[in-house]
Fold this sequence. Notes:
Elements: E1 2-6, H1 12-21, E2 25-29, E3 41-42, E4 54-57, H2 62-72, E5 81-84, H3 90-97, E6 103-106, E7 109-110, H4 113-117, E8 122-126, H5 129-140, E9 145-150, H6 154-182, H7 187-196, H8 202-206, H9 208-212, H10 223-239, H11 245-259, H12 270-284
Parallel strand pairs: 1-2, 1-4, 2-3, 4-5, 5-6, 8-9
Antiparallel strand pairs: 7-8
Helix pairs in contact: 6-10, 6-11, 6-12, 10-11, 11-12
Amino acid sequence: MLIGFAGLGRMGRPMAEHLAAAGHTVLAYDPIVAQSPQSVTLVDTPAALAATEMSISMLPDGAATRTLIVDGLPAVAPGHLHIVMGTVGPVVVRELAAQSWVEVIDAPVSGSVSMAETASITTMVGATTAQFERARPVLAAMTAAQFHAGPAGSGSTAKLAVNAVLAGLSQAVAEGILLAEAGQLDPATFYDILASSAAGAPYVGYKQQAYLAPESTPVAAPVSLIRKDLGLALELAQRQQLNLPGARAALAVLDDAIAAGLAQADMAQVLTALRRSNQPMSRETGSTPQQTGALS
């Protein structure tokens, strides 16, 4: 199949490569990236993607996604299906799905860059049953599991709910490490205990090095990205008149991390932001948090 792909960032690039490896012909567009993998063909304008049967966007926000579809894909053939795989929120997706000239569904993903590279990420799809069945073989080339969450926008809702949990879990792990340090526990020993405990979710296991050795661990999901997603989740909660105190607390810590210059650091470095915020309190009580080179 001839497939258009917009967005060759850290997640999008390996996803486009997986499509090509599965036998699809991929036309790729990125407003910033000047080079593409050899297996895909880079095009100069998003309008070139209109010639494809199906297109995919893996763009950073709703504004970029809206511009791509409204301005870049006005001349698609009838039946063209566009899959929004970036996390943009259900409001934008439903607005775009209401357009008359193009079919739009959403299929945001859950997982890290390394999981995208191995096609082991999960996607949550908002589409009709017919659209889901049409898109699923293409999605299966890039993801390990595909869940039909409901109509257009449902995939984005599911993604925001997942990332609200993820942000809270990230903060909880950091707080657990701080508490263990305060009690003079070795951080690595405590982390092994945590990973084997009832709280040992998969996230705890695969983020161990991001918490314990951040200086030598590649960034999987930056603070700025999870902050963007959690902000969208809280916007959705506000629309539904929901009070999510845990999510609001996690957002405040993410904002602190960004203010501390950690926007592009891995999301596990909320630990650094929390440690810094606790130092003044420790000085007031005459104690200093246990410091290690691996956790600074």
